[in-house]
C-alpha cells in the first residue's frame, strides 16, 4: 500500500529536497512545527520509501568533468539476457549518471558525464565491446540551462 502524505509531509519534503543538511530545528521552524513531530514524519517518509537517500550535489565542471553527452542507443536485441548484460554494463560505469528505456524509435538514452571527448570515446569503446548495439548517437551538451532534482510538490 502506498504511503499517504499530507500537506505537512509535503512542506518537510520541500525543505529536505532544497537542502538535506538542514537541522531538524531549522526544518521544524520553516514548516511551522516542533522537532519531534518533524523527526517522526521524516522517519515515516524514509521507512515508506518516499525519501530514498540523502546526497550532496557536486559541481561536475569544478571537479574536471566538463563534458556531458546524451547517448541515444538503438538495438536489435531485446532478449532478457541482452538486457541484463546491458544493465550490468551501465551499472558498472560511474560515467553513466542516468539511463532510461524509451518508447519510440530510440531504445535507450544515457546521460554520460566525462572529462572530455577522449574520455567519452574510451567509455564508448568499452560499452560496445561488452554489449552489441545497432546504432549509437552521442550528443554533446554545449550548455546546461537547467538541472534540478526538485520535484514540484
TrEMBL record:
GO molecular function ontology, one term from the record: sequence-specific DNA binding
Top-level taxonomic group: Bacteria
Record-level GO cellular component terms: cytosol
InterPro entries: ArsR-like_HTH, AsnC-type_HTH_dom, Dimeric_a/b-barrel, Tscrpt_reg_AsnC-like, Tscrpt_reg_AsnC/Lrp_C, Tscrpt_reg_HTH_AsnC-type_CS, WH-like_DNA-bd_sf, WH_DNA-bd_sf
Domain HTH asnC-type: 5-66
The keyword Chaperone belongs to this UniProt entry's keyword annotation: no
PROSITE patterns, per database record: HTH_ASNC_1, HTH_ASNC_2
GO-annotated biological processes: regulation of DNA-templated transcription; response to amino acid
UniProt keyword annotations, A-Z: DNA-binding, Transcription, Transcription regulation
Keyword field contains Membrane: no
UniProt protein name: Leucine-responsive regulatory protein
Species this chain originates from: Cognatishimia activa
